[in-house]
Backbone:
């Protein structure tokens, strides 16, 4: 039995698969701030025998919550002499250009907790100024008095030579064994001093939180009889062990959301759809990501708290490229100062939750609107639902302002929420040079199946796939993942003038390091699979594009093919290429996978009779653009392989509902996925 749990803003999800491919799906309410309790609750609710679990996978919001809520440790920074103020200097770019009172982000480490050490390394990795151990000793004595809990160490150009950072960490542990210490080279070996420093600081800031949470959860799982094979989802789309996650917790900052994206790519490969838009609507947020030819896009240009008005905080760690907005099932509808209706980003969360949950919630949410719009049924909630309370909240908070009914208020909330989600989908497709008509959408989460078909219709996306475990699909994605580690080394080299021997020596160093780490996680050498990526640019440019490179070792005849791939990639993103201009390699990026056994997918029985046998009822349902229509409601559990129907219709299951619009058709594939298709204009 393999089990995955995923903590969301409202629910904690569970998916379990046995050796025969049979699924167990379950949800329990998330339990902030003691998130481990929600995990234990959903395990108990599922009825899974803890001793039969051969592998446990976990996704958590603990790290991102600690960062956004400023609930990490008291953290210090030790850096090169003269670079104490790098966190304030940051970058000169201003996202809100005409804001005359713009302020840069407040550093996570105040200036008085930043200590300088005499040392200097060149960009070539040469030691220019030896490391002063006396400065380290003085810094530690000061930080002890200030009672810091964690220390980040980031020296200039340490990406080119890690010797000074390693010696500093050794000295700190000798002088102060109890303190948490994070050298920047444990997380990133890319250049750009501000981003590296920020990443090291944020990692140190959450190290005590991660250790406490994972130790507590691990002990509870052990006490319940679960074996030790436990993995946690990383932001790069792979997994790692609990022990490694304690050292580099910043790598799990997007632990939960990326699992759904990775699961979408796996599902796309299984059903023959390599181009996928993954669309996840949970209780708090809507997230989307684009998968091109089966490849999940990973970036190291990731920020927390960044928007059109705020610069945010960079994290230079591999993260699946996701666009996320504050629009989910629990997003609150409200009237702004100008009298316009808004939905999100504030959420009702797990407590008190939407008004429909009956937990003293008074603010109407997207879930409440979908209930009154007929898309959801009160019968499917796991609590008693007072429709009168929901309608009263809609009228009180929205309807009175516009002099409209509860039903019209629900329509308006759905339109605004759909508009917000539509903009997010455009950000990862149209605005990046992709035509949505070339992609299929995998819609999941509790709200994805409700909103996905409508949005696909607006964007001319030809097909929407609603997976079997739609509402817990991120947890399903974890079960299909492998252990993954990214090794990125900055070294700026002329591609035309650098020998293949020099480049292969860099690759070999990364491969050797990856084998050591995978071996420490209990994996054999034949379980390792590698992907090679070169970050390249034209000479004179500032930024790079990622080029999928041939496997190690590179041969001389590979040079022309790599250049050809670079020109094509550059033209795709920037609409031009410069075939006669020399190119530079900036980073060599090795992705090392430790392959884990995957559960088999179970096929479902064919539809034996007419689809009318799955009909539950007919009720009025609101469709954006088509108004209210009498709509057949089907039970998903009674739909077999080959079942077909024409929209409008709704397919209900205990934790979500799929809303198929007029002009769309529904079919069920051999794995039980719902396939919604439409004519593309």
Residues:
């Amino acid at each position: 039995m393999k089990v995955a749990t995923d903590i969301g803003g409202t629910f904690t999800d569970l998916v379990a698969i046995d050796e025969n491919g049979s699924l167990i799906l379950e949800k329990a309410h998330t339990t902030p701030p003691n998130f481990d309790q929600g995990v234990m609750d959903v395990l108990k609710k599922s009825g899974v025998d803890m001793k039969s679990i051969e592998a446990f996978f976990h996704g958590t919001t603990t790290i991102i919550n600690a960062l956004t809520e400023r609930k990490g440790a008291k953290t210090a920074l030790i850096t090169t002499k003269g670079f104490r103020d790098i966190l304030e200097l940051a970058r000169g770019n201003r996202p809100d250009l005409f804001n005359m009172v713009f302020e840069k982000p407040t550093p996570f480490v105040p200036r008085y907790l930043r200590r300088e050490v005499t040392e200097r390394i060149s960009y070539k990795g040469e030691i220019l100024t030896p490391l002063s151990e006396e400065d380290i000793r003085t810094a530690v004595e000061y930080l002890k008095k200030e009672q810091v809990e964690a220390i980040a160490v980031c020296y200039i150009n340490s990406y080119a030579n890690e010797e000074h950072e390693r010696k500093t960490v050794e000295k700190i542990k000798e002088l102060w064994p109890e303190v948490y210490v994070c050298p920047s080279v444990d997380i990133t070996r890319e250049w750009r001093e501000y981003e590296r420093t920020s990443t090291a600081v944020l990692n140190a800031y959450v190290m005590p939180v991660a250790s406490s949470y994972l130790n507590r959860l691990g002990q509870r799982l052990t006490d319940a009889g679960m074996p030790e094979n436990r993995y946690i989802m990383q932001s790069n789309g792979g997994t790692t062990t609990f022990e490694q996650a304690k050292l580099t917790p910043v790598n799990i900052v997007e632990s939960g959301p990326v699992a759904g994206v990775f699961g979408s790519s796996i599902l796309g490969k299984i059903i023959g759809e390599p181009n996928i838009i993954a669309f996840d609507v949970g209780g708090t947020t809507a997230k989307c990501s684009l998968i091109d030819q089966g490849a999940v896009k990973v970036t190291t240009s990731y920020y927390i708290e960044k928007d059109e008005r705020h610069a945010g905080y960079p994290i230079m760690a591999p993260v699946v490229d996701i666009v996320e907005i504050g629009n989910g099932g629990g997003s609150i509808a409200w009237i702004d100062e100008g009298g316009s209706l808004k939905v999100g980003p504030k959420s009702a969360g797990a407590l008190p939750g939407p008004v429909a949950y009956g937990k003293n919630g008074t603010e109407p949410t997207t879930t409440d609107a979908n209930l009154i719009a007929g898309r959801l049924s009160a019968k499917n909630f796991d609590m008693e639902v007072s429709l009168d309370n929901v309608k009263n909240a809609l009228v009180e908070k929205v309807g009175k302002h516009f002099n409209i009914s509860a039903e019209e208020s629900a329509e308006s909330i759905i339109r605004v929420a759909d508009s917000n989600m539509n903009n997010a989908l455009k950000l990862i497709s149209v605005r990046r040079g992709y035509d949505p008509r070339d992609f299929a959408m995998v819609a999941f989460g509790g709200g994805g199946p409700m909103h996905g078909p409508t949005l696909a219709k607006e964007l001319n996306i030809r097909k929407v796939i609603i997976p079997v475990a739609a509402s817990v699909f991120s947890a399903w994605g974890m079960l299909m993942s492998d252990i993954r580690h990214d090794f990125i080394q900055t070294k700026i080299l002329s591609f035309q003038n650098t020998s293949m021997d020099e480049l292969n020596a860099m690759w070999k160093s990364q491969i050797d390091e990856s084998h050591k780490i995978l071996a420490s996680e209990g994996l054999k050498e034949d379980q390792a699979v590698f992907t090679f990526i070169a970050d390249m640019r034209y000479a004179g440019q500032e930024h790079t594009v990622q080029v999928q490179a041939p496997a190690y070792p590179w041969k001389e005849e590979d040079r022309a093919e790599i250049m050809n791939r670079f020109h094509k990639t550059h033209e795709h993103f920037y609409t031009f290429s410069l075939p006669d201009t020399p190119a530079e390699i900036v980073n060599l990026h090795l992705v090392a996978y430790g392959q884990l056994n995957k559960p088999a997918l179970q096929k479902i029985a064919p539809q034996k009779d007419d689809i009318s046998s799955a009909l539950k009822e007919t009720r009025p349902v609101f469709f954006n653009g088509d108004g209210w229509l009498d709509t057949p409601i089907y039970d998903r559990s009674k739909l077999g392989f080959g079942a077909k129907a024409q929209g409008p219709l709704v397919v209900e299951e205990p934790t979500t509902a799929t809303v198929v619009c007029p002009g769309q058709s529904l079919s069920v594939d051999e794995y039980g996925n719902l396939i919604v298709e439409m004519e593309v204009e």
Summary: The first helix runs from residue 35 to 46. The mean pLDDT is 93. The chain has 15 helices and 35 strands.
